[in-house]
Design brief:
Layout (H helix, E strand, L loop, with lengths): L8 E9 L9 E6 L17 H9 L12 H10 L28 H7 L2 E8 L18 E5 L10 E3 L6 E3 L2 E2 L2 E2 L8 H14 L12
Parallel strand pairs: 3-4
Antiparallel strand pairs: 1-2, 1-3, 4-7, 5-6, 7-8
Cofactor: Ca(2+)
Protein name: Arylsulfatase b
InterPro entries: Alkaline_phosphatase_core_sf (IPR017850), ARSB (IPR047115), Sulfatase_CS (IPR024607), Sulfatase_N (IPR000917)
Length: about 210
Amino acid sequence: MSLYTARVLVFFFCLFDWSLAASTPNVVFVLADDYGYNDIGYHGSEIQTPTLDKLAQSGVKLENYYVQPICSPTRSQLMSGRYQIHTGLQHSIIWPEQPNGLPLNSPTLADKMKEAGYSTHMVGKWHLGFYKKEYLPWKRGFDTYFGYLTGSEDYFKHIRKTSFTHKAYLDLHNEQGPVKNESGHYSAHLFTQKAIDVVNSHNKKKVKEVNV
């Protein structure tokens, strides 16, 4: 399997309620990128997914639900609530050298959750544009971010190669800038730990006044 394949758990964000109202839940959303019908155990796959099977068994299975077959269009729909023909992202993914992104006039899900009083955090893959700072995830509604900005990465070195010159560069970032000290730390383990840290570090006593 290529180290640049995107078929991994790559997108995770937490939306924590800042209010003390018990009726407002905390939200944890996990997206598995490019996940096929036969890539999960309970569909008869050779790939064993006992944890996902257990979650599905105790939850709701959307067995007749469809998304776009590639990354950026699907992510743009999730984050904006708009079909990709209305954001210009219907044709393909956003390539590393491409000056494109989710339009800035499209509020993101994170923006809307913040308006409702949530703190927002993202771990994993962005892939919705980064050619200007205004398109970065921490400028699009997320309080914190840790992950890579393009469509795939080397799972150990956290590098990406340009599409045409194949020049390698570091693609691991947080809201402070490039992260240079995680080489050799396997991405699945790294992102898992970062996600756990986000949950554990949430200040449950923090209250924010929300104007509705």
